[in-house]
Amino acid sequence: TLDHYIRSMSIVEGLNLTTPYSTEDIDYFISNIKPHSRVYFTGGEPGLVKPVSDILDRLIDMGYNTTVSLDFNSNFQALNQKWFDKLKLFKGTMLASVDAVGARAELIRYGCKWESVDRNVRSFIDQCTNFNLVVSPTPSILNIFYLNEIVDWTKDLKNENRVSLTFQNRLSIPGYLDLKNLPEELKSKATQRVNEITMGHYRQDLAKHLAQPTDISGWPNFIFNMDKLDKIRGTNWREVLPDLNFNNN
Questions:
Q1: Residue of 132, 125, 130 whose CA lies nearest to 164
Q2: Shortest CA distance to 84 belongs to which of 18, 122, 128?
Q3: Which of 2, 68, 216, 248 has the fewest CB atoms within 10 Å, measured from its CB?
């Protein structure tokens, strides 16, 4: 309801994200959950947020763990085994926010360790057998040339009945990472690469996004900001994302 939405927005403002909910907030959430509700927790990493575990405990005490459906977003950068143990008692869907694999993942989501992300995802699939896992990357300038790597990794998870992949998200902020702001030469190349994606039903939507008018300031802003981040982080985006190199760099 509108009242629930307004209250939720007021709760979110100015939060300490490690403890975003008070006991009063949890009481309010629980009072609005029915036996067969769908309960959705957004990411980054809800498994590290103690009040999320407290909510699961309350649902278990109420016997709702066998009836409600849980949806989570997670970047899988950390594994909290106690949280996994609680999720084993529930059913639902886990949306894995994985934008690339290997060194590209570590650049795009700076600070993550790909080996840990890969291991944590596989551990979740093995342990939380009542959950489906949806790999949910956000296509952007950073990963548009490497989406098939995510397709291949998803297939390698080797659980076709419970693991799927979607490219429905789109990055729009910051604008210099938006697909539509690639230079025309790279747009043409990206469109060709999109046409190679083995999950063909996403090709049309991605190609349509690439075909949108380009903001002429987008690419210079991309170069400026990526070079600035390289200096701060000690990274090298041109080396990790070689398809973005062309003669106007």
A1: 132
A2: 128
A3: 2
Rounded to two decimals, the pTM is: 0.85
| E strand map for the chain | 38-41, 69-74, 91-96, 131-135, 163-165
CA 87 – CA 182 distance, rounded (Å)? 41
Crossing angle of helices 50-61 and 23-31, rounded to 10°: 40
Omega of the bond leading into 137 within 30 degrees of 0 (cis): no
Each residue's pLDDT tens digit, 62-75: 999 999 999 999 99
Helix, strand, coil shares of the chain as percentages rounded to 5?
50, 10, 40
For residue 237, the one-letter residue type is W
Low-confidence ranges of the chain (pLDDT < 50): 1-12, 17, 248-249
**Distance, CA of 165 to chain centre:** 11
